[in-house]
Amino acid sequence: MFKRKKHINGMYEKPFWLRFSWSILQAVLIVAVFSFIVREFMFTNYIVYGQSMMPTIRDGERIIVNKIGYDFMEPERFDLIIFHADEESDYIKRIIGLPGDDLYYESDTLYVNGEPVEEEFLEESRTENGSEHFTDDFQLEDLTDEQTVPDGHVFVLGDNRQNSIDSRQIGYVPMEEIVGRANLAFWPPESIRFIR
Known about the structure:
Blueprint: E1 7-8, E2 11-12, H1 16-42, E3 43-47, E4 62-66, E5 80-84, E6 90-97, E7 103-106, E8 109-112, E9 115-117, H2 123-129, E10 138-139, H3 140-144, E11 153-157, H4 167-170, E12 173-174, E13 178-187, E14 193-194
Antiparallel strand pairs: 1-2, 3-4, 4-13, 5-6, 5-13, 6-11, 7-8, 7-10, 8-9, 11-12, 13-14
């Protein structure tokens, strides 16, 4: 004796386990493709190591980086960006100088194209630091041999100015090395906040 196979519109019906497995595989593939697209082109997360951005971002915090449109948009002064510092390391720093800017620090004040610019995000750092001068005086030309930030590059500094490896040591950051803008700290949970 043998079982007859079921017919549906003249075709054999596939066994349940095969249909179920195919449905699971399709769902996994859709999730994997969606995750790849989101991570590659929209958002990604990073763990911050070090103290160069304290107190804005602390060592060990996890942050969300927005990649949407950053390839096509012009970066803005004071954006917090992630960029490829070398083949193995990504850094998070704040954009201080944009292409064409002539900038310098004098008496703990940032001057861009001859005009003083407020850095309100440094108030907490200055208070915690307690020293009279938080950012040492410098002129762009003394650090880079150029008077202005070149096209296609930005000049970046860490918020913890006295404990940061940034454009003062590594030079300008090419825009094509920028991964995206840091938007949100999400771990640890008690520190969830938008970052600016």
